[in-house]
Amino acid sequence: MNTDKLAGLPIGVCCCDKMFVDREATASFCRGMWRMEAVQESDLFGVRKITLGVPRRWYAWPLIRGLSDLPHVTLLQDCPATIAMRFHRGGLDCALLPVIECLVSTGVSAEPGRPPCKVIPGIGVCTDGNAETEVLFARAEPSAMRRATADFAQGGMLALTQVVLAERFHVAPELVAYPGDGKPTDGVLLSGNEAFAAEHPFPLRYDIGELWRQATDLPLVHMVWATQRGAPLPELRRLLAHAVRKGLEEIDEIAATVSRVYGTDLEAVRRYLTDTVQYRIGAAEMDGVRKFMELAGKHGLCDPRAEIHLC
Predict the structure, then answer these.
(1) What is the DSSP-derived secondary structure letter of residue 167?
(2) Residues 19 and 307 sit within 8 Å (Cβ to Cβ)
(3) pLDDT in tens, 142-195
(4) CA distances (Å), 31 to each of 25, 39, 283, in order?
(5) What is the SS3 assignment for 123?
(6) Helix (H, G, I), strand (E, B) or coil at 135
(7) Is residue 39 classed as helix, strand or coil in its secondary structure?
(8) Under 8 Å between Cβ of 89 and 102
(9) Where are the alpha helices (DSSP H) in the chain?
(10) pLDDT mean across residues, the chain
């Protein structure tokens, strides 16, 4: 097993309340969190019930390893759109969400009617270069794309592709719910498990992570842990830090399970989980978050004044 990813992981408790302001402050904040004491098994059992929501994506399994075995934790898995909806309606204490679902503006949610939330720093899902799970298939060059099909159940994950298309190719194609409305389309957006090693009749394949890297020279943060106001933050930090550490230690077992359940090549899954996806979010990844927020605002996908608040 590749143990390099274990170094520097957030493995303890941090009780300060800090807003994500600049790169230096973020780097210092994350370093402080990573230096905390290791979580002890005896600390994992609290009395407050905690409900977590996670998109049904196998690359998220290392983040939740062992959580379903804890008596005070309820773990719900569904499509990204449903998880986000349940979180914003107050049905989840904490959820793994696309960045665009976590934005707040001037003390309120960036989306009217949505309560503000905060992000637990240091842990999430990110890639640097090829993402492999966010893919665009196109009939011709994306600059000529007018209509594309997309699975709307992927929710805020589609914003990654929309930002890349707008910034890299200066297009904003109409998105049509998959499998389409019978009219011709120029492309199809695939996200999550369905995108991994996918094939399609359209001849051109674009990896959104690689296009993002070309456009920004930054890592791409796919998802982060968001919490509700009033959630038990010390306990959540302990649980999530313990889970990701356990997940990385047991990555071979996770890869074998993914291969068996989804019928995916074992070596391809193991390579993806050990070499492609990253679960540590540091200063460079936060730069990527900031750039995504900037471009999403620029292209009309969110309030340009939106911010992310760290807890």
Answers:
(1) I
(2) yes
(3) 999 999 999 999 999 999 999 999 999 999 999 999 887 888 999 999 999 999
(4) 10, 17, 9
(5) strand
(6) strand
(7) coil
(8) no
(9) 23-34, 80-88, 158-164, 208-216, 233-249, 251-262, 266-271, 283-298
(10) 85
Other C-beta atoms within 10 Å of 107: how many?
8
Closest C-alpha to 61, from 196, 250, 219, 233: 250
Whether this model's pTM surpasses 0.85? no
Amino acid code (one letter) for 175: L
d(CA 267, CA 265): 6
Cα 45 to its chain centre, rounded Å, is: 27
Higher pLDDT, 35 or 291: 291
Q: What's the CA gap between 236 and 245, in Å, rounded?
A: 14
Count of alpha carbons within 13 angstroms of residue 160, beta-carbon side: 33
Q: Please name which of 162, 97, 175, 102 lies closest in space to residue 134, comparing C-alpha atoms.
A: 162
Token pair recorded at residue 134:
């966010």
Domains delineated in the chain:
4-124+219-294+302-310 (3.40.190.10), 134-216 (3.40.190.10)
- Show Cβ contacts of residue 260 under 8 Å, excluding neighbours closer than 6 positions: none
Alpha helices in 89-232 (DSSP H): 158-164, 208-216
Could you report how far apart the first and last alpha carbons of the chain are, in Å? Answer: 32
DSSP 205: E
Q: Which of 126, 125, 101 is nearest to 306 (CA)?
A: 101
The sign of the CA dihedral 227, 229, 234, 239 is negative
Q: How far is the CA of 214 from the CAs of 129, 180, 217, in angstroms?
A: 8, 30, 6
Residues 112-125: pLDDT tens digits?
Answer: 556 678 999 999 99
**Residue reference for tokens 């240091």:** 122
Please check whether residue 61 is in contact with residue 82, taking contact to mean a CB–CB distance below 8 angstroms: no
Task: Report how far residue 12's alpha carbon sits from residue 18's, in angstroms, rounded to the nearest whole number.
Answer: 17
Chain position carrying tokens 């900037």: 294
Question: SS3 of 40, please?
Answer: coil
Angstrom distance (rounded) from CA 65 to CA 266: 19
- At 305, give phi and psi (nearest 5°): -90, 0
